[in-house]
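Posting here for the record, re: 1-deoxynojirimycin.
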Amino acid sequence: MLPCCAVRVCHVLMLVLCLSAAEDFDWTKNNHDSFYYGTFPTGFSWGAGSSAYQTEGAWDKDGKGLSIWDVFSHKKGKIQQNDTGDSSCEGYYKFKDDTSLMKELKLNHYRFSISWPRIIPTGVKSDHINEKGIQYYNELIDHLLENKITPIVTLYHWDLPQVLQEKYGGWQNISMINHFNEFANLCFERFGNRVKYWITFNNPWSVAVEGYETGEHAPGLRLRGTGAYKAAHHIIKAHAKVWHTYDTLWRGKQQGLVGISLSGDWGEPVDITNQKDIEAAERYVQFYLGWFATPVFHGDYPQVMKDFVGRKSVHQGLGTSRLPMFSPQEKSYMKGTCDFLGIGHFTTRYITHKSYPSGRSGTSYFTDRDLAELVDPRWPDPGSEWLYSVPWGFRRLLNFVKTQYGNPMIYVTENGVSEKMSCTELCDEWRIQYYKDYINEMLKAIRDGVNVKGYTAWSLLDKFEWDEGYSERFGLYYVDFRNKNKPRYPKASVQFYKRIISFNGFPNQREVENWRRKAVETCSSSNQLLAAEEQRSTAANILRLIHDPLTSHMEMVTEIVVPTVCTLCILLSAIFLMFLLRRN
Ligand code: NOJ
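Prediction output follows.
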């Protein structure tokens, strides 16, 4: 017989083994269960989202300062069709109408962001506070609360004050940390008595990679191999500082929560029996979500990032890694600075290992990862080029978060799908399918034990989709951007999402199928309304062109002559074809 203390030791060892096993995500187990009918936990929060630059418009009204997106979108060739967010959905003026739409959906929360230059025009608090901007957000928050909708407020959804970019180089400069902290502190002071959910940064991955590495987003810098890492470093530190500010100065009286919203595509190994593919897939996720999540939960960058960027930097003959380091004090300051984790998730990739030589030329965040991304051609891809519908990837990502970061409280802060601009189809069955399947995978993840507290459909309205301008529509509500009143029309998905919210889940196959059918029925009347409105505005445009003495010849040609000639050509070809068919 084993002595008692030996049994104890064995127990402890087994416990340690179990615990450490629980920490590991199992890459070899990918179960695609069938649809699960059931409900979400009581109190689960349903919402929809937006962001300031994408919806507010009023870019130069009531004392607002310029943001980097105002400046970037005004440069020719940066945005599809040279679109800008100047007026966008006119959300600044229409927030009461939009609240009615949220009520119609029976939303529990609304996620929006505060435009930093709207309330601090130069970005520096001691320069000037724009009270009119403060008043706008006060009214919005009050109105939401009067309608029993909880505000979830993002402090930074990409619209840095332009002055900070010009003076300091934006997120390349360490001074952003203090300026952002001052701005956040002002928000806590002015709005914190009513706002209880704060998100410091939205999708810092995009800010760093697309703003400072590829230059597709504002401020449009291409500092390959270094810019993104440096921007991210300052953003992570700024997040931690703001969390501490809230924790020491405001939490006691305001009792709110401060989190960060990270975006993460899922990366699935091409071959789950191949260790190299598994490691490559893990690297993909660590370089994406882990880059930001690991510091805020564990106090440092993922080991695999430090190893890969470090080794490549050595090969490139650099004295230090291109990935900056945190000091021991910074590590303990950062660790645990996340009351809840916001997850923005849209799509998945298959990942396989691929080595990139680490020569000096061609260094980039992308080649640092040593992997290749693949997609399955059978995956549906209704809108954005990058967005394939792969619902099971969502459950995998949520389970990964659970195992890696100690099962934190999660709010899904973005999930949804787009369609192309040319499509004025309100009967968005593919979006219904996307929401149905993704929300179902989230329900399965909750049953797996993932601590998801709320879900935010992205987005409430069609809006300015960054470098894609208005060419991609993510909204539950269609916005007619050609009409200066920017009217909103419900897509079929509004009805479907509303049913999920009312039932707090999915009752049974027959009922859910009924929801889909009914939703699609309602949209044909909205479609007619939209079509009638479009005809009316086309007629009004023609009249304007005819009556306006300054109408340019070009406008006349593109707006009237070309469509008329095209229609005539189609008609003539059809008649000709019929004639030929008859003769044969
Ligand atoms: C993430 C961004 O946070 C959001 O602003 C954008 O609309 C969606 N991705 C879709 O591209």
